């Protein structure tokens, strides 16, 4: 059922809305009309632009606007793409950016609209890095200005970064850095299942595991209070069920079940980030290691969670036993299985979805592990004391081999 809501019920999100079961062809022109935005930059997935009619149909619906277009953003939002988008915003006095793609697209666009308001025209990577606290891997909020350019995100994955005022980009040395401003969330998020339907199933499901990771790591944090835990225990089964329905619909050729699974998963992905955004509960080692596993070894964003969540749960079991018991119960009930540990239940789910579960399956080499561990210790999550030491990080990585 179509529903328009404020993205999150927190300070700073007034005027930042989201529409579930949206129609991008109707809702994008309606928003541009409301904002009186005449100059528009589309930042769109290469596959959507070349292999489907999604972007062509949108361009037809925007024939009365001055439309510019960038096709393609690299995995993990390279600085070069962020700079390119920001320069186009500055050079053409863009009033609204429309991102249609995965989390790499939404992150690149979020950072670009922040930087186009923060840095002078023609800025480069050095100016970007000068904004970053290198110990924390974080720029903002004091060093970053609020965007003045509107941003619409039409996500094609479940990594759910579009709900966050933070965004990540990868610098030329291969380190993932984070940028944020309280007003850095998109102006409008459109959850359109028909657009998401075009995403290859393995990418959709992997991004769904990223959202599962958000829920599970939040529940396992000592900061997770009763209100947040209740939210997670309500939302996680819906997300897992939605991914299961999507997978079964795909396997059986049942389009209605598949679209229902997409819509349920999209709502679940938003709920998965609430503990972090609303209650400031940080993620843990799976996320932090995953940030650098992506930037160093090029592992796709969602796949890092498929590989790292299971060994992270094994590594932290002694400290998170109660939370893991709740995770185990949820997975056993939804999947109808009888695993003894949460790590085994998560691993079973990853395999059920046909996703990789080992570093060896995605080409990560032994000699890369030390660099991944070292960079993890400078990740934005490290300052929350959410991580083990280097030896602990290497132990998790070695369990994942």
From TrEMBL:
Coiled coil: none
InterPro entries registered for this protein in UniProt: ADH_Fe/GldA (IPR001670), ADH_Fe_C (IPR056798), ADH_Fe_CS (IPR018211), Alcohol_dehydrogenase_Fe (IPR039697)
GO molecular function: alcohol dehydrogenase (NAD+) activity; metal ion binding
Oxidoreductase is among the record's keywords: yes
Gene3D superfamilies, per the entry: 3.40.50.1970, Dehydroquinate synthase-like - alpha domain
Keyword Oxidoreductase applies: yes
Domain Alcohol dehydrogenase iron-type/glycerol dehydrogenase GldA: 18-193
GO CC annotations on file: mitochondrion
Pfam families the record matches: ADH_Fe_C, Fe-ADH
Residue ranges of every copy of the Fe-containing alcohol dehydrogenase-like C-terminal domain listed in the record: 206-399
Keywords: Oxidoreductase
Superkingdom of origin organism: Eukaryota
UniProt xrefs under PANTHER family: ALCOHOL DEHYDROGENASE, ALCOHOL DEHYDROGENASE, PUTATIVE (AFU_ORTHOLOGUE AFUA_1G06800)-RELATED
Protein name, as recorded: Maleylacetate reductase
């Amino acid at each position: 059922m179509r529903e328009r809501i404020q993205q999150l019920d927190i300070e700073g999100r007034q005027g930042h809305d989201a529409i579930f079961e949206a129609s991008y062809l109707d809702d994008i022109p309606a928003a541009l009309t409301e904002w009186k935005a005449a100059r528009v930059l589309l930042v769109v997935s290469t596959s959507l632009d070349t292999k489907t009619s999604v972007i062509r149909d949108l361009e037809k619906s925007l024939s009365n606007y001055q439309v510019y277009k960038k096709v393609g953003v690299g995995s993990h939002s390279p600085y070069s793409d962020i700079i390119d988008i920001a320069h186009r915003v500055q050079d053409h006095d863009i009033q609204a950016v429309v991102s249609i793609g995965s989390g790499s697209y939404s992150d690149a666009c979020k950072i670009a609209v922040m930087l186009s308001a923060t840095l002078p025209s023609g800025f480069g990577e050095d100016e970007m890095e000068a904004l970053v606290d290198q110990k924390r891997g974080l720029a903002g909020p004091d060093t970053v200005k609020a965007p003045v350019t509107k941003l619409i995100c039409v996500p094609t994955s479940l990594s759910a970064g579009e709900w966050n005022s933070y965004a990540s980009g990868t610098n030329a040395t291969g380190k993932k850095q984070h940028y944020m401003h309280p007003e850095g969330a998109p102006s409008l998020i459109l959850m359109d299942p028909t657009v998401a339907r075009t995403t290859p199933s393995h990418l959709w499901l992997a991004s769904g595991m990223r959202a599962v990771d958000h829920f599970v790591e939040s529940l396992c944090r000592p900061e997770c209070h009763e209100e947040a835990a209740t939210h997670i225990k309500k939302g996680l089964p819906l997300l897992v069920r939605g991914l299961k329905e999507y997978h079964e619909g795909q396997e059986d050729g049942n389009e209605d079940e598949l679209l229902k699974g997409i819509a349920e998963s999209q709502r679940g992905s938003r709920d998965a980030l609430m503990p972090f955004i609303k209650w400031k509960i940080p993620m843990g080692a799976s996320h932090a290691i995953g940030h650098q596993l992506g930037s160093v070894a090029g592992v796709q964003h969602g796949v890092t969670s498929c590989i790292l969540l299971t060994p992270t749960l094994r590594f932290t079991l002694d400290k998170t036993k109660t939370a893991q018991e709740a995770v185990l119960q949820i997975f056993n009930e939804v999947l109808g299985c009888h695993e003894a540990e949460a790590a085994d239940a998560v691993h079973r789910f990853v395999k059920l979805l046909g996703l990789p579960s080992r570093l060896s399956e995605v080409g990560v080499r032994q000699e890369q592990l030390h660099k991944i561990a070292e960079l993890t210790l400078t990740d934005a999550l490290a300052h929350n004391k959410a991580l083990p030491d280097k030896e602990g990080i290497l132990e998790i990585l070695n369990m994942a081999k």
